[in-house]
Amino acid sequence: MKYLVWKQGSPYNNWVISFAESHHDLRQGYAENLPNWFTTRKDALNFIRENFRIRYKIPTNGFLGYRLKNKPADTYIYRRGGHSYGSPQMVKFNWSQNYTYLGV
Asked: How many domains are there within the chain?
């Protein structure tokens, strides 16, 4: 499952989380919105981090073979272009480099 965090325009000015099965569905607008609305992008990202996780296997060299670990789900952020020539785009959110921003 892939998640997209985007800002709804005026008069609402809140952050919405959309989810879809694939990255292509998010790009084409075939995603469904969660019923939760957030006042900041940070709140929306922390909601995803706390409630939606992926379990994956890490191989070990020992007798057990592997161990299970959790990581946050694949998340994208909708970003507007910074200049008049900039185009809006979906950027993958890098969880490992943004824990300080999220207050973890």
From this structure: 1
